[in-house]
Amino acid sequence: MKKNILTIIKVLVLLGTWLFIWNHYNYEFIQQIFGYTELVAWQSVQISVVMLICTVVCLFVWKCIFKQISFLHIRKKRYLLGYLIPIALFFIVCLTYQGSSAYIFQWGLAFFILSFSQDILAFGFLQTLLEKIVSYKLAAVLATLMFFVGHIGFFPMNMVLIFYLGGFVLFGILRYKNKHIYFLDMLHMTFNISRGFFL
Questions:
Q1: What angle, 0 to 180 degrees and rounded to 10, lies between the N-to-C axes of helices 182-194 and 158-178?
Q2: Which among 14, 35, 64, 95 could bridge 40 via Cys, Cβ 3.0 to 4.6 Å?
Q3: Which domain holds residue 125?
Q4: Is the pTM of this model over 0.85?
């Protein structure tokens, strides 16, 4: 009984800490990137560079503590060629965009970094830490739910939330089945970049 209570406390503390970091990590950046102006796009690039540096530093610290970064380990390196899909889509968006080419490039760069950093934070750090406390399946469910909760403030419409929840569940399944974040990250990037067709 005491062990179960301790486990619940650990999970709640971890989820609360993650949500606090998530909100401070993403809020300013996402508010900037959804502004859709050239000035805001440049500010988004600056913020995204800081976000990328923070992510790299966190990965380095993680490596020092746990000796490995399991969620970045992939046996068949050729699967990484899947990143060519969002990259190719980005070039198509750039070619079809009617406005400033500098703006759309900055916008796309910011979204690439945003997707990667969010996936590292949720399905990398959070899910891996949860796996040390609870079962792998429960860790995948909790990480997916937290990723969904972290997006509620940015997509308030009910139907949009339901649509996004379906996508996030797919992210969770991909992470659980493959043990790494690359496939879900490719999908996340592809979806975000595809929004460029509607700018």
A1: 150
A2: 35
A3: 2-198
A4: yes
